[in-house]
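Dear support,

I submitted the protein below through the web form. The confirmation email said the job was done, but the results page showed an empty box. After a refresh the structure appeared. I'm attaching both so you can tell me whether what I see now is the final result or a partial one.
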Amino acid sequence: MMGILLFTTGLFAQNRKVTGRVTNASDGSPIIGATVVARESKRGTSTTHDGKFTLSVTSRDKNLDISFLGMKKVSVVLTSSKSVYNVVLEEEYSDLDAIVVTGYGSQRKRDVTGAITSLTAKDIEQNAGGNINTALQGKIPGMQIISTSGEPGAGANISIRGLSSINGNNEPLYIIDGVPIESSNISSLDDDATFSPMAGLDISDIESIEVLKDAASAAIYGSRAANGVIIITTKGGQNLGISEPVVNVSHTSSIVTNSRNLDVLNAREFREVYVQARLNNGNERPTNDWIVNPNNPMYLRSTDWQDLMFRTVYQHRENISLRGSSDKFSYSLSLSYRDQKPTVIETKYHQYNGRANFTYKMNKWLKGYTSVSYANQDYNRILTGNSLTSVVSTIVKSNPCYSPYDFETGELLDYLGGNQTRNPIAVAKYVPYNFSREWTIISQNFDLTLAKGLVLRISGSMNKDNTLQESYSPKRFDKISSNPTDKGRYRERLTSRLSTEDYLTYNYNKGNHRLSVMAGMSVTKYYGKTTTLNGEDYIDSEIHSIQNAGKMTNPASVSEAEYAELSFYGRINYTLKDRYIASFTLRR
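What the results page shows now:
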């Protein structure tokens, strides 16, 4: 009994109590609810209303960690000779002092009065195989992104805090390095698919993204920002300072396959269900040859059309960049290539990107910025939706009793069951559809320092977008017409936007007062032209361009649009003691 008692006494001697008080470094006030944790044993407690704490620690505890939201974490070393620890926490400014782009300038995060969410390059590049729309999915509170399809470069329906547009377009306004970008999806030539204009942007070039979600933060861009603003800043070429040249080479690859196929009937099950359905509907027993003669070599095979139409593909992306700077010049050059081959047979997608950003200081009062970017997309696709040439809908509708190949010659059939249904494999192979796009942005800015805190920015930009879509259908699939013929369609859409932004910014910071005043004007000239052609009787069935058509079935359709915009805008931000903030914005 005595041995047991001595052992128990020694066990309790291993624990001891430490006490203390946690206060704020700025005014000495107690911090309520601060977390106090013994690092080794993970024992913890919280401070009371007067900032005090009491914690039981073990002999193996060597460190005490004290933390509180918005404060810098503090660690103290526990010693056996000391039981009282008074800790002072300092405010954590790293996040609140971060600079965010707000449109025609930047602000400290703590001075922003509107709803703004920021993302860094690290947040974006986690989505290595996608585009800007998929990279933003699930990362911005209140922002909903729904892709229109699973195709490469597919369009997306984007809403920020609900639908709020006054002109019917509910897409947000995109700004890339100060250049406004048209955000409406590009419609397909022959089906209901859409393509995102932002798909041409290489996400590896993005430095940061700011999403302006409410009226207060987006008001500087006027009515076109009714559904929010997405401001994109690209990497490099922006900050001066001595930095050795850095070359980055990256390669990303993946094996992609359909996660699952639809559960469909095989040939035997389909025959049974089809016959039973007809009988249940009061019809006579069907006499289709594929039903009454299942042992015919034409119908003997059970075809899973999904297995034939979908494939496992290898996708990859390569990027090389060179960045560096000196006291008077900085540069960023990048090239990238992406092969995003879809899982549907007879399709392919290639994208090329190039970007060059430069900053140069000509003297102490004049600084310049130059940015040039180019994107080229080339997509050979199949049609989707519910059209007659839609491969996707044909896959689901095709009879599993039919074989896509002639059982005698092994050649690919154009139609299944005589002339009943188009063979989806043949349609994918012989009905080409091409979507190609070239996108060029050039911008030039100059910052002229007129006096201390007073800077005039003069900027100009050109945004040129050329989209080309072509389709071709051979006469072998024209069974409806009494005079079958090759048919083709062509659409070219060219847009050009020239803009100049000139604005004056004054910043004053003294003591408890921080003032920022900005006023400027914007001039934009837009030109758009869309040309649509329809042709038939192709001279050579192997050449599918519209120039090979023997005649045009309809007069050429050409639509043009041209307009100019003139805007004036201004903003005043005032901060008192880093606590009281007032902001006023106007655009007209």
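Response: this is the final, complete result; the empty box was a page-load delay. The mean pLDDT is 84.
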